[in-house]
């Protein structure tokens, strides 16, 4: 999640190379290649080849949910979500299965959070941004979970 947020915060100026995300997020380039390949297949990111290449968002961050990102990257999570949905439909008359119900609720919650809202929840003032980056690039947040703090402050 942090890698996508890192890219989203920087992609307004140019395509973001995986090597730069790797350095900032301390994630191996090979893992990022696998992850961004899956994201590209789902239309969440676009890849640009050649000099100055890298990745940009495939659509507006307002139209990308956290659930879409997680389900694109985590094949097991996607499989579990599909099974939970099928089981929920099949067992609608029986007592709800705790884990399937929980998976459904978590997925529903994450579908309600856009990448855009995470970007807004992690503002960096211009002085801090300029001091940290000579190109004025926006720095990524330390965690996608700062969204909860943002909501708590917003009240």
From TrEMBL:
PROSITE patterns: HTH_RRF2_2. Keywords: DNA-binding. It comes from the Bacteria. InterPro entries: Tscrpt_reg_Rrf2 (IPR000944), WH-like_DNA-bd_sf (IPR036388), WH_DNA-bd_sf (IPR036390). NCBIfam families: rrf2_super (TIGR00738). This is Rrf2 family transcriptional regulator. It comes from Pseudorhodoferax aquiterrae. The lineage of its organism: Bacteria, Pseudomonadati, Pseudomonadota, Betaproteobacteria, Burkholderiales.
């Amino acid at each position: 999640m942090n890698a996508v947020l890192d890219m989203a915060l920087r992609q307004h100026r140019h395509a973001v190379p995986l090597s730069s995300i790797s350095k900032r997020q301390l994630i191996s380039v090979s893992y990022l290649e696998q992850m961004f390949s899956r994201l590209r297949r789902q239309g969440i990111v676009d890849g640009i080849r050649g000099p100055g290449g890298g990745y940009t968002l495939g659509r507006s961050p307002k139209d990308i949910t956290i659930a879409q990102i997680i389900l694109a990257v985590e094949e097991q999570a996607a499989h579990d979500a599909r099974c939970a949905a099928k089981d929920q439909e099949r067992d609608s008359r029986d007592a709800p299965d705790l884990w399937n119900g929980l998976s459904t609720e978590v997925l529903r919650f994450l579908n309600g959070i856009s990448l855009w809202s995470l970007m807004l929840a992690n503002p960096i003032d211009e002085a801090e941004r300029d001091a940290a980056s000579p190109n004025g690039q926006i720095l990524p947040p330390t965690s996608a979970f700062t969204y909860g703090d943002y909501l708590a402050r917003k009240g």
